[in-house]
């Protein structure tokens, strides 16, 4: 069971603000969409002339559509902020990423050293023969 | 290249949520466009409206889950781990390989010169 640690005030406030933004944006999308659908209903009796009512409905739908788009963009910004927060503060993932990188680099280093040692053994045999040839020649 | 599975899983989930938000706006647009027609296709309308509602609820649930997870794991401290030491060791190993290659090429050149 995960234990709730005492977060610093700023981080806790930040996470609460994320929750609030999420709820507000989702509510905005749903409410504005519902109101657009409602205003699509054709009324038989209107307080003003049909033309005026039509203009009003048109303007209202524009505003509500813009609100839906604004809420959508705000949600995208929230997702971007959450990604940033995750990269910086999700310690289990960061620890695992660091461990994996360390393992990968250590494996590469061991491979290089192993191959160098094998190369050293082969070259020492050839060098022995080269030395014999050189010291028994007239060029030494 | 190693895959950082755990870290990328959550980031990939967030990217899917971003795509779904785009789909939400598109569904909303399709529903309103369909309503504006003289002869509406009711089945398409119902399907798109249901997809819109389901997507909104799914996005809200997923993002709440991510925020809840972050509330549990965030400590407020900066992470001080690094892979610098193993990176340095690996870099030195690669330098040793380069040096060995350089010396071997010197020996090979010397042997060729002697043969000439």
UniProtKB/TrEMBL annotation, chain A:
<keyword id="KW-0805">Transcription regulation</keyword>
<keyword id="KW-0804">Transcription</keyword>
<dbReference type="GO" id="GO:0003712">
    <property type="term" value="F:transcription coregulator activity"/>
</dbReference>
<protein>
    <recommendedName>
        <fullName>Mediator of RNA polymerase II transcription subunit 22</fullName>
    </recommendedName>
</protein>
<dbReference type="Pfam" id="PF06179">
    <property type="entry name" value="Med22"/>
</dbReference>
<comment type="function">
    <text>Component of the Mediator complex, a coactivator involved in the regulated transcription of nearly all RNA polymerase II-dependent genes. Mediator functions as a bridge to convey information from gene-specific regulatory proteins to the basal RNA polymerase II transcription machinery. Mediator is recruited to promoters by direct interactions with regulatory proteins and serves as a scaffold for the assembly of a functional preinitiation complex with RNA polymerase II and the general transcription factors.</text>
</comment>
<keyword id="KW-0539">Nucleus</keyword>
<dbReference type="GO" id="GO:0006357">
    <property type="term" value="P:regulation of transcription by RNA polymerase II"/>
</dbReference>
<dbReference type="InterPro" id="IPR009332">
    <property type="entry name" value="Med22"/>
</dbReference>
<dbReference type="GO" id="GO:0016592">
    <property type="term" value="C:mediator complex"/>
</dbReference>
From TrEMBL, chain B:
<comment type="function">
    <text>Component of the Mediator complex, a coactivator involved in the regulated transcription of nearly all RNA polymerase II-dependent genes. Mediator functions as a bridge to convey information from gene-specific regulatory proteins to the basal RNA polymerase II transcription machinery. Mediator is recruited to promoters by direct interactions with regulatory proteins and serves as a scaffold for the assembly of a functional pre-initiation complex with RNA polymerase II and the general transcription factors.</text>
</comment>
<dbReference type="GO" id="GO:0003712">
    <property type="term" value="F:transcription coregulator activity"/>
</dbReference>
<comment type="similarity">
    <text>Belongs to the Mediator complex subunit 11 family.</text>
</comment>
<dbReference type="InterPro" id="IPR019404">
    <property type="entry name" value="Mediator_Med11"/>
</dbReference>
<dbReference type="GO" id="GO:0006357">
    <property type="term" value="P:regulation of transcription by RNA polymerase II"/>
</dbReference>
<dbReference type="GO" id="GO:0016592">
    <property type="term" value="C:mediator complex"/>
</dbReference>
<comment type="subunit">
    <text>Component of the Mediator complex, which is composed of MED1, MED4, MED6, MED7, MED8, MED9, MED10, MED11, MED12, MED13, MED13L, MED14, MED15, MED16, MED17, MED18, MED19, MED20, MED21, MED22, MED23, MED24, MED25, MED26, MED27, MED29, MED30, MED31, CCNC, CDK8 and CDC2L6/CDK11. The MED12, MED13, CCNC and CDK8 subunits form a distinct module termed the CDK8 module. Mediator containing the CDK8 module is less active than Mediator lacking this module in supporting transcriptional activation.</text>
</comment>
<dbReference type="Pfam" id="PF10280">
    <property type="entry name" value="Med11"/>
</dbReference>
<keyword id="KW-0805">Transcription regulation</keyword>
<protein>
    <recommendedName>
        <fullName>Mediator of RNA polymerase II transcription subunit 11</fullName>
    </recommendedName>
</protein>
<keyword id="KW-0804">Transcription</keyword>
<keyword id="KW-0539">Nucleus</keyword>
<keyword id="KW-0010">Activator</keyword>
């Amino acid at each position: 069971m995960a234990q709730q640690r005492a977060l610093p005030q700023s981080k806790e406030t930040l996470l609460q603000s994320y929750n609030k933004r999420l709820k507000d944006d989702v509510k905005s999308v749903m409410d504005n969409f519902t109101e657009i659908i409602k205003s699509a209903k054709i009324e038989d009796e209107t307080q003003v002339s049909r033309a005026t009512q039509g203009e009003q409905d048109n303007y209202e739908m524009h505003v509500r559509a813009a609100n839906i788009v604004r809420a959508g963009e705000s949600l995208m910004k929230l997702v971007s902020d959450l990604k940033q927060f995750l990269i910086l503060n999700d310690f289990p993932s960061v620890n695992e990423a660091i461990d994996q990188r360390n393992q990968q680099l250590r494996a590469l280093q061991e491979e290089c050293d192993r191959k160098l040692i094998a190369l050293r053994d082969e070259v020492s045999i050839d060098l022995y023969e080269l030395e014999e040839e050189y010291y028994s020649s007239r060029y030494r | 290249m190693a895959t950082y599975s755990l870290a990328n899983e959550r980031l990939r989930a967030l990217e899917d949520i971003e795509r779904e938000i785009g789909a939400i706006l598109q569904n909303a647009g399709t529903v309103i466009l369909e309503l504006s027609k003289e002869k509406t296709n009711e089945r398409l309308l119902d399907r798109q409206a249901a997809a819109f509602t389901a997507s909104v609820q799914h996005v809200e649930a997923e993002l709440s889950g991510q925020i809840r997870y972050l509330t549990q794991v965030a400590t407020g401290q900066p992470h001080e781990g690094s892979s610098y030491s193993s990176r340095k060791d690996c870099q030195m190993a690669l330098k040793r390989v380069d040096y060995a290659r350089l010396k071997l090429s010197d020996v090979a050149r010397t042997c060729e010169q002697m043969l000439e």
